[in-house]
Design goal:
Blueprint: H1 5-28, E1 32-38, E2 44-51, E3 54-62, H2 70-78, E4 83-88, E5 96-100, E6 103-109, H3 110-115
């Protein structure tokens, strides 16, 4: 019922990530929480997965953009997060991998990321 495609994609990813966090807790006893990041200046990253109250994975959802998102870059330059993903849902099957401030950043199609979650 949500009209904006970007909001529908974020909701889709949110449901999968929430299920993943619950799976980690139920299966392995790992306390995983799903959060988001937003500053007063408007920097926003869609999802942060905390493991034992520490940022472990940052995820940014984009409709089709395959260039590294400046908001994700802003967060990773300031906070040590082991893994980061930028998911795109465009036509391209592009996958890029880079290291930013010690974080392993993957830019990849959203369907590939979601298909590999347990």
């Amino acid at each position: 019922m949500v009209e904006k495609k970007s909001a529908r994609l974020e909701n889709l990813v949110a449901m999968h990530l929430l299920r993943f966090c619950d799976w980690l807790t139920d299966t392995y006893g790992i306390k995983a929480e799903l959060r988001f990041f937003r500053t007063s200046r408007g920097h926003e990253v869609d999802f942060i997965i905390l493991v034992n109250k520490k940022p472990f994975i940052a995820i940014k959802v984009k409709e089709s953009d395959t260039d590294l998102d400046p908001n994700l870059c802003y967060l990773l330059e300031r906070v040590k997060i082991p893994y980061a993903f930028q998911l795109h849902f465009g036509e391209e099957d592009l996958h890029k991998k880079l290291i930013l401030n010690g974080s392993e950043v993957n830019i990849l199609p959203g369907w590939k990321f979601l298909a590999n979650l347990p």
